[in-house]
Amino acid sequence: MTETLAEKTCTPCRGGIPPLTREEAERFRAQASDWELRDDAHRIERTFRFRSFREAGAFVQKIGELAEAEGHHPDLLLTYGSLTIWLTTHSAGGLTDNDFILAARLDKVL
Description:
four-stranded antiparallel β-sheet
């Protein structure tokens, strides 16, 4: 049985790991289909919509807890009614499987 991305956990980043190619990123994105490839497949992004700033803020809190547990931290832009999340692995200079694992897990949190 193949484990889904949402069932995996992030592995510690060690530098020197090459980023995913566009083709590899597209394969991972199949399990995180609401996320868009950006910056020539060097990051993924998704915007979540909320009815209120408070609701969006509560989701940010959940993201923070998950990010700390996974040791992989997204960039966030919180505005009234929406939250945009960017994922990339800075030490790799692009996307790694950790970005897609965290994206899939964030999808489940919402």
